[in-house]
Amino acid sequence: MATPNIETIIRDRVTLTVDCIDRLYLNGYVPRLQTSGQIVGFLRDHLGNPIPSPALLRPVHDRFVRDVGTFADAGQIPVVHFERGQRKDDIAAEHRTRFTKAEGVVFIGVAQERASAFKARKLTGNERGVLFEFSRQSVAVNHYYFYIQDREWGPGFVKVGTYLPYPVRVCLNGHEWAKQQARQVGLGFTSLDNGFLACDDPDRLQAICDGLGPPDVQRFFDRWSAHLPWPLTTVDRTAGYQHRLSIWQLEVSRTQVFDQPVQGRHFFETVIRENLDLGRPDRISLLFPKRITRRTPAPTHGYRTRVITTGIAPSLHVEYKHTDVKQYFKEERALRTETTINDPTDFQSKKALETLPQLRATGARINEQMLAVERVSHACSLSQDALALLQTPRQQDGQRIPALRFGDPRVVALLQALCGFAHLPAGFRNRDLRPQVAALLGRDLASYSRGAMTYDLRRLRLHGLIERVPRTHRYTLTSFGLRVAFFCSKVYLRILRPGSAAIVDPPDDLPHPLRDALRRLDQAIDQLCAAAQLHPEAA
Predict the structure, then answer these.
(1) Alpha helices in 406-478, H assignment, sequence order
(2) I need a surface site. Which of 71, 373, 454, 481 has the fewest CB within 10 A?
(3) Which residue has the higher pLDDT, 385 or 7?
(4) Would the pLDDT of 530 be above 80?
(5) What is the DSSP string of 95-157?
(6) What does the mean pLDDT of the chain come to?
(7) In this structure, are 286 and 221 located in the same domain?
(8) Which range marks the domain in which residue 337 is found?
């Protein structure tokens, strides 16, 4: 029986594919309360106090705490004080099982956590009297977690800090939003944790998932910030002291449900072996749409790939800057490919909520590229004719096409370097690829000139491995070039390099059949040399 192939597993064994935003974690901040001068203006000009003393913040804090207590009592809402080390999600899940309303606050959690806040320092000796200077510092303050069941979003929570500048966090889940929308339109489906196992109309479900946008998020926040106790009053908010949302963390996922759980096992057994090195800097751009050059500073701990096994369920993680791509087997039924963007500025200049569609598209593109690289990496065979054509110099349209001889160290280094630039949207240039090739050859840049790189790029272009982006000096790798780069690199790294070392000096830990075969080969060569009246050393 043939070994299961990644391409055929995805093509023939997947019954449902859903692309959707998963967890969405938002930061709420008040733009007019972010600097020392703005704090002074809030206390003096807005609240009408001639001296902007920090003592004025205590009444605001106490009023907010009282409002939370009154709100909880009026709605008979449980209040839970989180202890250090407790898993908030476990406590929330337990309370949600007992909540029967279609919408409302499930419970209120209280936790003391560190936050970036303002502390005041009294200035003395000033002609204008008593003044205070405010500075940003990390302080431990109470935060209220309002765990919510929403008609449009399902489960979520809003966390509000009790101290200036009153930071807010909002946690929502796009899959749960899609489930609520599907229920409202009567679309039948079967749940898979925070995902979908089956659906009556997959195309309609995908259309629902694609429809999630910034207005849906803003509507949730506006509704609940008006309903919940809030540190800033209606008067404050009318005067312009309103919270604005930005993206703190975004998870974008692709869920592919297998018809049989064993197919997921076949997938991981194949894909993990093929992609253990996806986290290397010369491969990271296969996944992430960010150009990496020799000037790009590496992360503190480098680019990493980890394979994590929990019980018998493996997961593959690829890390880049603040972003993590992971693949795992969800509930033994579905392949989840998930990109978690912990800092939107890894890929764009802003974190504003209105950039959600662009950031989501980036995450979806990374997921697609992850799967594409895995498929091509596994199924990168070349025909004998195609391989022979690469190694043969020839004339075409009046141009001489130099050979790309397999085994030539320079060609091997060139093809390995190409594996790192397969999916760059803007392509790569001479100066991008040259340091990679030089490093793989073990040379410095001075010994591998720009002219040599230009000659190699011309060879690649004429053989159809790369193509020039019109009106630029950039190149992109063709699908044929991707197959060639993977095939030749794998043959060299996995067969020729270790195999040639074993032939020259067979190690004792080689399997017995292979060691015996190498000895027989050595004896046969000695016999041929003897018959030709040659010493083996001269062969």
Answers:
(1) 409-418, 430-441, 450-462
(2) 454
(3) 385
(4) no
(5) HHHT--SSSEEEEEEEEEEEEEEEEEEEE-S-TT--EEEEEEEEEEEEEEEEEEEETTTEEEE
(6) 83
(7) no
(8) 1-25+173-211+247-379
